[in-house]
């Protein structure tokens, strides 16, 4: 769908995107979804809900992908973010 929206063949789009970002189109889309997931986790959503809302079919795969990108599990990330949010400002 994305290739059609930008009026390119899939191969051309993938080649250009890889040249610019160093990532395949699949990885670019996955990173976008995981960044969206991080913001949803910050807002207090449950991990399984975030997984499904960002298009992952399996919470296990979502957790593994999230940990790959951020180096921390989604539940620890959410806990860390909520703790930082509650810290008093000096």
Summed up:
With 90 residues, this protein is mainly α.
Q: SSE layout and pairings?
A:
Layout: H1 2-5, H2 10-21, H3 25-42, H4 47-53, H5 59-70, H6 74-86
Task: Describe this structure as you would to a colleague.
There is one protein chain. The chain is mainly alpha-helical. The chain has a single domain (2-86), classed as Arc Repressor Mutant, subunit A. The chain is built from six helices and no strands. The N and C termini lie far apart (49 Å).
Spell out the key features of this protein.
Arc Repressor Mutant, subunit A, single chain, mainly alpha, 0% strand, 6 helices, 90 residues, elongated
Kindly report how far apart the N and C termini lie: 49 Å
SS content category: mainly alpha
What share of the residues does DSSP label as strand, in percent? under 5%
The total strand number stands at: 0
Percentage of residues assigned to helices? over 70%
Give Rg in angstroms: 16 Å
Compute the number of structural domains.
1
Task: Classify the fold: give the CATH topology.
Answer: Arc Repressor Mutant, subunit A
**What do the pLDDT scores average to?**
89
Uncertain segments are: none
Shape: elongated
Major sheet description: none
Return the CATH class: Mainly Alpha
Q: With helices defined by DSSP (H or I, 4 residues minimum), what is the helix count? A: 6
What is the CATH-assigned architecture?
Answer: Orthogonal Bundle
What is the string of helix and strand elements?
A: HHHHHH
> CATH homologous superfamily, by name?
Homeodomain-like
């Amino acid at each position: 769908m994305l290739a059609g929206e930008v009026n390119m063949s899939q191969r051309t789009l993938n080649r250009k995107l890889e040249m610019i970002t160093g990532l395949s189109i699949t990885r670019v889309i996955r990173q976008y979804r995981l960044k969206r997931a991080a913001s949803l986790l910050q807002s207090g959503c449950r991990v399984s809900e975030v997984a499904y809302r960002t298009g992952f079919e399996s919470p296990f795969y979502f957790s593994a992908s999230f940990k790959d990108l951020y180096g921390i599990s989604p539940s620890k990330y959410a806990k860390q973010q909520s703790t930082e949010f509650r810290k008093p400002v000096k």
